[in-house]
Amino acid sequence: MPTQVHIPSILFISIPLIIVLLVFKQLMPKLLGHRGESIVRSRLDELDTSKYIVVNDLLIPNQKSKSGTSQIDHVVVSRYGVFIIETKNYSGRIMGKETDAQWTQVNYRRKDRFGNPLRQNYGHVQAIKELLGETLAVKVVSIVAFTGNAELWVDVKPGTHLIYTRHLRNTIDQYDQAVLSTNQVNQITEKLRGTNIGDYNQRKKHTKNIQSAVANHRATVKKGICPKCGGTLVKRTGKYGSFTGCSNFPKCYFTAGI
Fold this sequence. Notes:
InterPro entries: NERD, Topo_IA_Znf. It holds the Pfam family Zn_ribbon_Top1. The protein is α/β, with parallel strands linked by helices and 258 residues long. It has one domain (9-198). 38% of the residues lie in helices and 30% in strands. It has helices spanning 9-44, 117-136, 168-173, 182-195, 200-222; strands at residues 52-61, 69-78, 81-88, 92-97, 102-107, 110-115, 140-146, 150-155, 161-164, 233-238, 241-246, 255-257. A hairpin with an 8-residue loop joins β11 (241-246) and β12 (255-257). The radius of gyration is 22 Å and the shape is globular. Residues 27-33 have low confidence and may be disordered.
């Protein structure tokens, strides 16, 4: 009579659970991103629609390089300027400086690094300016908005709009001097909506390009090479503890994490 092997039933429960947890972990950043954008959309819905036009989830081609695309969370067009808004749904303490390539997120004893969103949104602002041209890009304002779950400990210069989402309406309301005509506002809105890439495959390609760039960045850092200038990465100690930085400092301010 063949020997029967008893397999604990808990294994049959654990394996699907592990798969679900792995999938959830992979989707978590995207889910958090959508949640943050949803919060900002609700704030922007409070704006007077006769004065402000909101365009969400904009994907536009890069004009100068003629290759690649820029994905922008929210654009608000008005006679008072064009507001480019980057949303971040992070929790914990956020630390860094305006000039840093990366910032640090601290949740209890865990520390994670992520790209400086001010730099990220600067790229979005430039993409919008290139798209609109000198005539229409009269006043383009960058805003980076974090949800209330984050605690911002970031050194920025006066006038830099690094804010909590609850302050978004007040930040936009600060601009009350008309710099664009009604006709220019309509031109800008038509150009943004007309240039927006809605094709699913092209949007998927954009995501893959971002993922590939991040992977190449990490691989370069892992080799001990500065991805910004090609210098050697060395260990340093700073205000927020130990970190890896470029040996070409102060010419290069790249830091690679704790």
